[in-house]
Amino acid sequence: MDGTEVAVRGVETVGTDTVALTLETPEGFDARPGQFVQLAATVDGEEITRHYTLSSPDADQTFEVTVEIDPEGSLSPYLADLESGDTVEVAGPFGDSFYESEERVVVLAGGPGVGPAVGIGERAHGEGATVTVVYEDDEPAHEERLTALAEAGASVVVTDDVSSEDVLEILADARGQTFIYGFADFLDRAHAALDAANVDAEEAKSENFGPAPDS
């Protein structure tokens, strides 16, 4: 799949083994938070491609993806070592599970799903929507942005169990379009939590990141 070479504008550590990669927006690139792109780079003579979901609220001049670094991975360690001025190839955007200016949003995120969660949360809040974010992770990333969202009036819950009673109460009370982002096992748990909270999981916009790296 052909991509466009773009410049790296910045690489920032945003959590344990997690970086936010800011890239120059290619001409004609029109993406909304929740969509994903394909990044490609040549590593040790081999072209490697992976998909990453936008974690910025827009893509006006730059856009951001959040990369969870797998030390044994083929591309993520390479991306984490990039510097401003380096280049990568970008193709996309892709995906149908993105924010479309809904007036109320509920985002369930596991692991690297926090990227689209903060992007959607910030965009939706900026447009005046009611925002609820439930994020499951033992070592949370993007804590500063999550705190800023909470201070701005969003309902933000960071938990190690998306099916806990406290989370189920929040989900039962929340209303709006539901989004789910994360690895396959998290999607299973998130769907079960929504069912337990009497929320129709079939109406959720979901993006399955595939099996977790250690599965």
Would you mind describing this structure in some detail?
The protein is α/β, with parallel strands linked by helices and 215 residues long. It folds into 2 domains: 4-94, Beta Barrel (Elongation Factor Tu (Ef-tu), domain 3), CATH 2.40.30.10; 104-208, 3-Layer(aba) Sandwich (Rossmann fold), CATH 3.40.50.80. It has 5 helices and 11 strands. The strands form 2 sheets. A 6-stranded antiparallel β-sheet has the order 4-3-6-1-2-5. It has a 5-stranded parallel β-sheet with strand order 9-8-7-10-11, with helices on both faces. The model has no long low-confidence stretch (mean pLDDT 95).
Short description:
This protein is 23% helix and 37% strand. With 215 residues, the protein is α/β, with parallel strands linked by helices.
Features of this protein?
single chain; Elongation Factor Tu (Ef-tu), domain 3; 2 domains; 37% strand; 5 helices; Rossmann fold; six-stranded antiparallel sheet; alpha/beta; five-stranded parallel sheet; 215 residues
Structural Rg: 17 Å
Distance between the termini: 28 Å
Q: Tell how many strands the DSSP assignment holds.
A: 11
Q: SSE string, helix = H, strand = E?
A: EEEEEHEEHEHEHEHE
Q: How many structural units, i.e. domains?
A: 2
CATH class annotation of the largest domain: Alpha Beta
The percent range for strand residues is 35-45%
**Number of helical segments?**
5
CATH architecture identity of the largest domain = 3-Layer(aba) Sandwich
In CATH, the homologous superfamily of the largest domain goes by the name Nucleotide-binding domain of ferredoxin-NADP reductase (FNR) module
Q: What class do helices, strands and sheet pairing give? A: alpha/beta
- Contiguous runs where pLDDT drops below 50 for at least 5 residues: none
Summarize the amount of helix as a percent range. Answer: 10-25%
Determine the mean pLDDT.
95
Query: If you consult CATH, what is the topology of the largest domain?
Result: Rossmann fold
Overall body shape: globular
